[in-house]
Amino acid sequence: MARKDRRRFLTGVLATGAATAVAPAVKAQEKETERAPTALPPTTQVAALETENPGEMAENRIKGTAGSDFMVDVIKTLNIKYCPANCASSYRGIHESLINYGGNKMPEFLTCMHEESAVAMGHGYFKVAGKPLMTLCHGTVGLQHATMGIYNAWCDRVPVIVIGGNDLDAAHRPPGVPTFHSAQDIGAMVRDYTKWDDTPISLQHFAQSMVRAYKIAMTPPYGPVLISLDAGLQQEVIKEHGSEKLYIPKYVPTSPPQGDSGAVKEAARMLAAADNPVIVADRAARTPNGIKLLVQLAELLQARVIDQGSRVNFPKTHYLSTGPAAVSGADVIIGLELSDFWNTVNNWTDNGENGVGENSSRIKPGTKLISISASELLTKSNFQDFQRFQAVDISMVGDAEATLPALIEAVRSAIPNSRKDAIAQRGQAARKAFADQEARAKQAATLGWDASPISTARLVMETYNAVKGLDWSIVSQSGNTSNWQNRLWPLTEHHHWIGRSGGFGVGYGAPASVGAALANKDAGRISVNIQADGDLMYAPGVLWTAAKHKIPQLAVMHNNRGYHQEVMHVQRMASFRNRKSNYGGDMGPVGTRIENPDIEYHKLAESMGWWAKGPIKDPAQLAPALREAVKVVQSGTPALLNVWTQPR
Amino acid sequence: METTLRYLLLLAAAVLISFTSRPAAAADAVKGKIAFEKNGCWQCHGYEGQGGAAGKTLAPKPMAYEAFNVFVRNSNTQMPPYPKQILSDADLADIHAYLSSIPAPKDYKTIPLLNQ
């Protein structure tokens, strides 16, 4: 494109209607407030090209502006801070635009060593920051690596924007490797566990699809989305669009769906009249405000709350906080964004009965059940994350957090004065039960306190002691430490605990911890990762990513030297079949142990730029090592302690 | 319900006949620790029988040997049963002796880390 034409093009990129024009330097918020957008001034880079080196545009090899520059302009309006990604030729066009044209800011490219790590970093980041990240990958080989991370994000209702490079035009794509790396429809691979995907075939189509993808991902129930990005479209020069000017649609967040008002009133009446209402929450608190709302509802009813732990839903230190067994005494149970209502009120015993196990109820007959969940809006059913069917008495399709304000008001009006004393007494009983429950948990933590390998309770409490004076955040999912951190740490804030992986695909822990630690770094917090051994070995390269990009965290390994869940499963199978299990010289069934040789995780971490120590087997050595490690983390370097632990 | 009933019946029947099994008195705690590890009890109950998310607390003070024997042999709960073919009475008695030898833990009030 001749310089003159280019100038005409630049002035021609206009915003129309609610759309905005191309201008990376302008923040999206500023743009959102613009009433009547006009053509915006060129960026510094564009201005430089136009003024300082008039010949360059005409001389550059592509003879114009690359389409991927416009893509970067679109992405910049969405305020995406980071792009963790493993580099790949099918997105080389946009890669170059991001780091050079876009100045490697908003988003900043983070070098990842596995696509699954990149997606899981976005997953962990969102759970702390509440904002999605984007990742780029090869649309075939890279996307296949990314799939497990995407599936976890899907099951955990977390938005991640995945962009897969793909060379659509078979007549023009490079032969050889790039053709192995192309597919007709890359979205087919992940369509069952993404909320939406699209294959833009023009730049304007890209602008619409990118904003739409962001909007869909960020509308509860949140979820991952995919854009298939044609390599040709990235590399082609921006063409004249005649009278149709390229524009960037404005992103306006969609308000979340709320439970029906009639159903809200009916639920409120039921809760207000209950003798022993119990609240169960799993992914109810999407934001810090969700916790406050749940506290209001619980206190209004003096109802005990079971936090199933996919997020911090309710402060662990609150006297109404209780364990899963509380459902047995309930007459009304309200489930908020439960991933498994059936298993909340029923029990399945893995006892080999008829070969498969036995079902039983955990609740009294006649207990009324209420559900509020946005997940019912997700009806893709190849993957069975919706769990067994549970019939309930009131079923609301809507986002729990968004419905809570209306429910709280309705409950307030539904409680008759005559019930207020009974409700207050319920609170007194709950205070006593809470104190007893705390004492029981602490006493249980003393069992094996001085054992070697180190007990999981000791591991978790030594770690707490080392960070308790700081603004901390637990960035690991590890429920494999018998949930001690959830039982004994004062989890009260949204960022105190990021929940689990969602799909229980092992390998999520390490990269999600790095993503969450990135968000915590920006917020000035210390990140604590109780890191499982098997999980780390899926893609340990993420340790390097953390060191490279100076993302500090304190990783304390729960190294039980096995895929311990499977150790127990295979042992159980052997017992059911009256067979002595073959341990092959290890401590558990063949194929389940990670020992002989033992992995030296401290050396692994050290080799990738971490400060590390281990193996620590004696509980007395843990406190001094933790003190040292915390200092290192505070100086900005990630630190890992390889601790040998009890199995659970 | 059904599970518990079946278990209680088994327990009653087994207590009557279990006096034929090896008396716990002759058992050896050191050998018991090895058997506890070799037979995978540690996997769900922890090396010291402390229990956790995967299995109940077994020590200190395990249940009386007769009931212990009946439970381990016939469990129809999450605990997989260990019949005689895969775990001898002698080994089971040693395991019981090991669990019985584990001292009581401290009171949590005396452990500063549990009082922060």
Ordered list of secondary-structure elements with their pairings:
The complex is a heterodimer of chains A (648) and B (116).
Chain A lengths: L2 H10 L6 E2 L7 H5 L11 H8 L4 H4 L7 H10 L5 E4 L6 H10 L6 E4 L3 H15 L4 E5 L2 H15 L5 E6 L10 H4 L15 E3 L4 H15 L7 E6 H5 L12 E2 L11 H13 L3 E5 L6 H14 L2 E4 L13 E2 L9 E5 L4 H5 E4 L8 E4 L6 E6 L20 E4 L2 H15 L5 H26 L10 H12 L4 E3 L9 H5 L20 H15 L2 E7 H4 L5 H7 L5 E5 L5 H13 L24 H7 L3 E6 L5 H13 L4 E5 L5
Parallel strand pairs in A: 2-3, 4-5, 5-7, 6-7, 9-10, 9-12, 10-11, 12-15, 15-16, 17-18, 18-19, 19-21, 20-21
Antiparallel strand pairs in A: 1-8, 13-14
Chain B lengths: L1 H16 L11 H10 L2 H5 L19 H10 L14 H13 L15
Provide keyphrases for this structure.
heterodimer; A: 648 residues; alpha/beta; Rossmann fold; 6-stranded parallel beta sheet; 5-stranded parallel beta sheet; 24 helices; 21 strands; 14% strand; globular; disordered N terminus; B: 116 residues; mainly alpha; Cytochrome Bc1 Complex, Chain D, domain 2; 5 helices; 0% strand
